[in-house]
């Protein structure tokens, strides 16, 4: 039997990007109606891991929550918007595929979600109310994460991490 040897921190550093990515304009995580600032730091870390950008609303508390939660100590690639619905509409006009993480009758199960092959925006709704009805019309696809337990959904940071890894083709 071969012994398992974890990689050293130096080996890990050498195998990864030497710095944060510049805007690749390919994959976006868009929590456009956030409720809890703690989720934004987790999401920033996941975006760094998969090479995605964040699209965030210009709520007064969001920049502080993002800075406080970003454990990478590097600035995340953030695209700010004061108009979430308008921003989503413009992304569709630019040819982006818009995927919403939402429980819906037409939703695709996470395991069936293909990796993003074109510019893709992953939309996340409000932690309690989901994606607003007026934004649902702007989605091309809905994805749901199956649950076996009694809960209705996962924490938004966990759900978005799973979906981003899938869209990035890493799961």
UniProtKB/TrEMBL annotation:
Coiled-coil segments on the chain, per record:
none
Q: Tell me the Pfam families matching this sequence.
A: SpoU_methylase
- Per the record, the domain of life is Bacteria
Give the UniProt keywords, A-Z. Answer: Methyltransferase, Transferase
Q: Where is the tRNA/rRNA methyltransferase SpoU type domain?
A: 38-165
**What molecular function terms (GO) are annotated for this protein?**
methyltransferase activity
Biological processes per GO annotation: methylation
The protein in question is named RNA methyltransferase
Give the originating organism: Streptomyces camponoticapitis
């Amino acid at each position: 039997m071969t012994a398992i040897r974890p990689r050293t921190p130096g080996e890990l550093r050498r195998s990864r990007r030497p710095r944060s990515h510049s805007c690749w304009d390919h994959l976006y995580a868009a929590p456009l109606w956030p409720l809890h600032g703690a989720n934004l730091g987790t999401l920033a870390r996941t975006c760094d891991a998969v090479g995605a950008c964040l699209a965030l609303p210009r709520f007064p508390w969001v920049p502080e929550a993002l800075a406080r939660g970003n454990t990478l100590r590097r600035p995340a690639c953030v695209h700010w918007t004061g108009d979430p619905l308008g921003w989503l509409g413009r992304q569709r006009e630019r040819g982006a595929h818009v995927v919403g993480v939402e429980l819906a009758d037409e939703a695709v199960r996470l395991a069936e979600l293909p990796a993003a092959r074109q510019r893709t925006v992953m939309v996340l709704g409000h932690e309690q109310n989901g994606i607003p009805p007026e934004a649902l019309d702007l989605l091309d696809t809905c994805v749901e994460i199956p649950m076996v337990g009694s809960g209705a959904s996962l924490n938004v940071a966990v759900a978005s991490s799973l979906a981003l890894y899938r869209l990035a083709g890493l799961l």
